[in-house]
Amino acid sequence: EVQLVESGGGLVQPGGSLILSCAVSGITFRDSTIHWVRQASGKGLEWVGRIRSNAYSFATAYAASVEGRFTISRDDSKNTAYLHMNSLKTEDTAVYYCIRFGELEDAFDIWGQGTMVTVSS
Amino acid sequence: SYEVTQPPSVSVSPGQTASITCSGDKLGNKYVAWYQQKPGQSPMLVIYKDDRRPSGIPERFSGSISGNTATLTISGTQGMDEADYYCQSWDSSTALFGGGTKLTVL
User: Fold this and answer.
1) Contact check, Cβ <8 Å, B54/A64
2) Which of A15, A51, A67, B54 has an alpha carbon within 20 to 30 A of A109's alpha carbon?
3) Which residues in chain A have their CB less than 8 angstroms from residue B1's CB?
4) Do residues A112 and A100 lie in contact, with contact meaning Cβ atoms separated by under 8 Å?
5) Residue pair B28/B65 in contact by the 8 Å Cβ criterion
6) Is it the case that residue B1 has pLDDT exceeding 90?
7) Predicted confidence band at B27 (pLDDT cuts at 50, 70, 90)?
């Protein structure tokens, strides 16, 4: 069974930092592109960024709203991707999903359950 | 910046056909996917590459695209189809989601 399990969410003050983890099982993680998408309460989906595989030099891309503050990394030996969040703002409060990008489908085919990040003083 | 637009809500009677549109200037240049999200759950892929259905998705779900408008059609809508639906496409390396459409089955 394919699983993506996020962890690391919680309450953080504005200006603070947090690292989210995405543990992946059931697929060949090293060949996978991993994306992060967030969803504020009662709002729509917002793409955050992605990291490609070693075959693509671990290339990353980010949404303009997080560029320069968020960084995505991965550890293929641990089948885990990370979302490093710095200089957090109240508007970053959301559920954060990690997602496996299906190359054949050209779409987000497997989603994690999400982890909640609350930025508040 | 480039945006993808969906109607905020669509209502349909059980057994009827629901159509949810997704519009954007560049939609004809990139594939469109559709996701279903029920309350308290993660989104789930229901249509990819404009009109293809993943295994396990009922045949009543179909997708199409004409020009810059993509459409998700649910034929013979059932109560279990009540959910939020999001279209998604691409602007270069950036994924774009529509604002979402709440489908109500009355």
Assistant:
1) no
2) A67
3) 64
4) no
5) yes
6) no
7) confident
**CB-based contact B5:B23 (threshold 8 Å):** yes
The one-letter code for the residue type at B80 is M
Cα of A60 vs its chain's centroid, Å: 12
Would you state the pLDDT for residue A19? 98
A19 touching B, CB under 8 A? Answer: no
For residue A65, with 0-12 CB atoms within 10 Å meaning exposed, 13-18 middle and 19 or more buried, which class applies? middle
Query: Does any CB of chain B come closer than 8 Å to the CB of residue A44?
Result: yes
Q: How many A-B residue pairs are in contact by the CB < 8 A criterion?
A: 61
Residue A5 has pLDDT above 80, yes or no: yes
State CA A42 to chain mean position distance.
Answer: 19
Interface-testing mutation among B1, B9, B45, B86, with chain A (most A C-beta atoms within 10 A): B45
> How many Cβ atoms are within 10 Å of B12's Cβ, its own excluded?
18
Contacts (Cβ under 8 Å, ≥6 apart) of A68: none
